[in-house]
Amino acid sequence: MNIVTPTEPLAFPPPVQEMTRSQPAGEASAVSAISIPDRLPSLDGWRALSILLVLGAHTVLASGFPQQHASLVNKISDGHLGVRFFFVISGFLITWLMLSEERKTSRVKLGKFYARRALRILPVYMAFLLVAGVLQYYTVCDHDLTTWIANLTFTRDFFPGGNKVSNHFWSLAVEEQFYLIWPFVFAAMAPASRAKIMPLLVAGTIVVAVICRVFWSHPLSSSPVWHSVFQEWSFLNNADSLAIGCMAAIWLAADTYGLRAWLTTRRLLVFSTGFFMLLEPQLVYWLADHPGLPSALRRAGWASSFCLGRTVQSAGFAILALQSILLPAWGLYRCLNWRPVAALGVLSYSIYIWQNLFCAKPSTYGLTDPWWMSFQFWLIPAFTTALISYHFLEKPFFNLRHRFR
Length: 405
What we know:
Elements (H helix, E strand, L loop, with lengths): L24 H8 L10 H17 L10 H7 L2 H27 L4 H29 L6 H8 L16 H20 L5 H24 L6 H7 L4 H20 L4 H7 L1 H22 L6 H32 L6 H4 L2 H8 L1 H12 L19 H20 L7
Helix pairs in contact: 1-11, 2-4, 2-15, 2-16, 4-7, 4-10, 4-13, 5-17, 7-10, 8-10, 8-13, 10-13, 12-13, 16-17
Pfam families: Acyl_transf_3
GO molecular function, one term: acyltransferase activity, transferring groups other than amino-acyl groups
Organism: Prosthecobacter vanneervenii
């Protein structure tokens, strides 16, 4: 779940030195004229799409939803893909912010970086936990000790069981663990060598993620520790998506391999490639499920989709996100920048935090099917709570962040 608000200046000069020899001069000058504005375009729109995918998937969990339609809704609204989008955006934005600060001050002040992140993340997060505590005291909604410790230490990704009201915090735990590691790795790398080092780091996270997915599906031990480390929500299983976002920011800023020219002058090819990569894991899975294929080929298809599908989707989304930043008015990307869509994206963190309270089964609180927890209406209290939270709880803390620039 993305919890970065890109309100800080993020401008970089738009150098596009590496042009193909066959590229017309007119195209070269057009690409050179492309600049990246202070507030990155399109990303709020991608946030909006991401939260809609999550909400669609969670609607299936709400009271009274006809379960015969659950499979169809989950295919249309892939909540896991939405969270994957958030991870890539987080990796990208955190890296972009640090690049911007480094460019202005020659270094990243990690103390102030963490102070800004705390002001963004903790107020609404702790407010949710306070509400969860009140619910536990006054209703039958119960969080066991392990769940409370996991929530308070941002380790819910390693302990995903327990009360479902807070089980969505696994994704926040993944991001917090990323924040603890990545800024130090970033600061340790020489600026001139980052663009070359990043593919190695990304490859390393992919290898770790694939190993986790193999050990998750074929455990070598039945111990709880083994399950916690390798199960699908753990940081190790999702770090590749964050790393891909980090590399995307570094490559875009440095215009590595003429990236900006490739994204802007081969528009349809780039868009088609990114979109196909989003669909590729599911397409491979469907093809592998065909009974006419040899069993060995079917197993290979299932294995590749399971082990690398998330990674392929994250890379595909990174391609689309980068192109939409450079070409916000082109094609479907224009929709990402419509004001209502962008406004929904701004609210996405608040919505994500509070929505689980309302898509839970009424029996979680000892209730008997109140209308506002039904699948038809649960989004009304979820959005209302998010709006109140954003304007009266979160925004006042936003105003304090300038003290830590």
